[in-house]
């Protein structure tokens, strides 16, 4: 469950942006640093989940330990994280969709001239995607759970495909220079790609329904987070091997890179997987 909750949309959304503008091929180190930081958070969640095996997650933990006010602040932050994250995913959804139909990633967006650059592209497709995702979520818990399970299996298969093809078709010469933006760029990217690791708290909320939370929760959280970190580092590595960091598409990196290496059919496969994952996570 932890693997399915974390892996999916994040790796497709921000890896290209951070590879091109912040870290270069050293994005693999950014994911390693973020993975270690996420593992520290996982250890904290594990401790709380074992001591306070309830379904409320971090809200319940803080309410018990620090009181209602701190829990209220935490709940507000969690809600803000969900809203901002969903908006970012929906915007990336339109970028991957535009890439899949062979148009510019901003083709489906509306440019507003009197807004500042960087904030002047309205995305109606993203709004529609959010409404559809909300409709799916409200259709029922059982149906949503089945769709999430199928989505997780398909995502894992496509991610495995990307890693294998990346090592076969990639070139180690594309990894030079490895630190084009220096150590500062690596840590700047690490702060952003940490978002790809969010979702592990879903397992902690299952402690109340687990027969042996003292054993199962630590094993599930720590084991899955370690595996996820390895998968993310491998995906970041193969992206940099398949294309020079300064040529990576910031909006739809994994679909565009397959087109660049002559595997256009794989571009559509990756785009569909990314779109599916982002729809599930919205």
UniProtKB/TrEMBL annotation:
One GO MF term, please?
transmembrane transporter activity
Under Pfam families, the record lists: AA_permease_2 (PF13520)
Which sequence ranges are marked TM in the entry?
28-49, 69-90, 119-140, 146-168, 175-197, 217-239
User: According to its UniProt record, where is this protein located?
Assistant: Membrane
Q: What is its main location?
A: membrane
Q: Which UniProt keywords apply?
A: Membrane, Transmembrane, Transmembrane helix
Q: Does the keyword GTP-binding apply?
A: no
Q: Note the superkingdom of the native organism.
A: Eukaryota
The stretch of residues making up the signal peptide is none
Any one GO CC term of this protein is:
membrane
Q: How does it sit in the membrane?
A: Multi-pass membrane protein
In which family does this protein belong, per the annotation? Answer: Belongs to the amino acid-polyamine-organocation (APC) superfamily. Cationic amino acid transporter (CAT) (TC 2.A.3.3) family.
The identity of this protein, by name, is: Cationic amino acid transporter 8, vacuolar
- Organism the protein comes from: Vitis vinifera
Which taxonomic lineage does the organism of this UniProt entry have?
Answer: Eukaryota, Viridiplantae, Streptophyta, Embryophyta, Tracheophyta
Q: Which gene encodes it?
A: CAT8_1
């Amino acid at each position: 469950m932890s693997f399915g909750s974390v892996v999916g949309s994040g790796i497709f959304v921000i890896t290209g942006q951070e590879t091109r503008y912040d870290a270069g091929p050293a994005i693999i180190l950014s994911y390693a640093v973020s993975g270690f930081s996420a593992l520290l958070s996982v250890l904290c969640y594990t401790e709380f989940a074992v001591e306070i095996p309830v379904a409320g997650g971090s809200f319940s933990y803080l309410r018990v330990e620090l009181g209602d006010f701190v829990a209220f602040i935490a709940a507000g932050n969690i809600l803000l994280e969900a809203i901002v994250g969903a908006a970012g995913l929906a915007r990336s959804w339109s970028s991957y969709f535009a890439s899949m139909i062979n148009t510019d990633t901003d083709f489906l967006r509306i440019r507003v001239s009197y807004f500042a650059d960087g904030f002047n592209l309205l995305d109606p497709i993203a709004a529609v995607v959010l409404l559809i995702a909300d409709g799916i979520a409200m259709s029922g818990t059982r149906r949503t759970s089945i769709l999430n399970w199928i989505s997780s299996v398909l995502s894992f298969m496509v991610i495995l495909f990307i890693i294998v093809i990346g090592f076969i078709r990639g070139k180690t010469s594309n990894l030079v220079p490895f630190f084009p933006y220096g150590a500062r760029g690596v840590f700047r990217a690490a702060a952003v790609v940490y978002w790809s690791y969010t979702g592990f708290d879903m397992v902690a909320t299952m402690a109340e329904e687990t027969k042996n939370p003292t054993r199962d929760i630590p094993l599930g959280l720590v084991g899955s987070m370690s595996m996820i970190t390895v998968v993310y580092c491998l995906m970041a590595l193969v992206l940099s091997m398949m294309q020079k960091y300064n040529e990576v598409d910031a909006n739809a990196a994994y679909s565009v890179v397959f087109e660049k290496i002559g595997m256009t059919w794989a571009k559509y496969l990756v785009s569909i997987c990314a779109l599916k994952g982002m729809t599930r996570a919205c």
